[in-house]
Amino acid sequence: MRVTSNGTFIRNAADLEEARQRLVEWQQQVSSGRRVNAPSDDPSAAAAGIRERNQIATQDQYAEAADSATSRLSVIDSVLDDIVQRLTDARTAIQSARGSLVTPAQREAAARELESLRSSLVSAFNTSFRGTYPFAGSAGTTPPYTQAPSGAVTANAINQTPVVLDIDRNTTVQITYSAEEIARGSDAEDLFQHLDRAITAVRAGNDADMHAASEGLQAVFNRSTAAQSLVGASMRAVEVQQGRVDALRRASEARIGDLEGADLAEAISGMTQAETAYRAALGAVSTTGRVSLMDYLR
């Protein structure tokens, strides 16, 4: 059976296109370093790669949450350091005003120092971070305390339930604290009532009330250091989680590389062979194009 030149040309042209496509695929692997550049290249590997990328996206969300938690906890830890120091200074000021040998001028100086420390403690508990108040529980944009020009301090009526943040599927950390839980706890009087009593007692030289106020401040001090311990434990938990998330992310990236990455030696060899095949197909098409009428009649 005689094969027409047109049929031969069409077949050779199809072979040429197939050879060109194989060459392009190998070239793409060599240039990109990837074996899977489209789902059709390897549907199974592409699907597994999508799952790994979803895992990476989830881990990135947890990493972002952990970074946010670290920033907030660092602020809280710093503020608690300041509060603990101010409470120590307040108890020292009270102690300096006790005894019969202390002069009225010395007691007045101690009272003024206590007033200054009271304002400093209000400012500490009212610290804001990125528009929210870390010691206002879940109140968000409302500070825990208000101080009048006279110096009197009142607690704002807010929801001081602490806020927790997920840093993993099974791990949460507390990122806000309750000022009232620290300043009052289960006591009948809060920090600022203790300070008011201390200021009045210092000016009056009332040793008994100074002692009672100092004991009240000691209880606040104890709750503050207990909160510091919780913050420290949370910061350590976040640090451990950040390391774990980083390891999981790197493992997913490695699996994606195994699934989709090209074997460069194999890709270069394949590209060389495909280029040879492509040139051969080009030659075949070129030869077909030169067939004469006499060639056809033979």
Shape: rod-shaped
| CATH topology call of one domain | f41 fragment of flagellin, N-terminal domain
User: DSSP strand (E) fraction?
Assistant: 5-15%
Order of helices and strands: HHHEEEEHHHHH
What portion of residues is helical?
55-70%
Number of strands: 4
CATH homologous superfamily classification of one domain? f41 fragment of flagellin, N-terminal domain
- Corresponding CATH architecture of one domain: Up-down Bundle
**Structural category:** mainly alpha
Write out the strand line-up for the largest beta sheet, numbering strands in chain order: 1-2
Q: Helical region count?
A: 8
Describe what this molecule looks like in 3D:
The strands form 2 sheets. The protein has a two-stranded antiparallel ribbon with strand order 1-2. The chain is 70% helix and 5% strand. It has a domain at 52-254: f41 fragment of flagellin, N-terminal domain, CATH 1.20.1330.10. It has 8 helices and 4 strands; from the N terminus they run H-H-H-E-E-E-E-H-H-H-H-H.
Please summarize what this structure is:
Helices cover 70% and strands 5% of the residues. The chain has 298 residues and is mainly α.
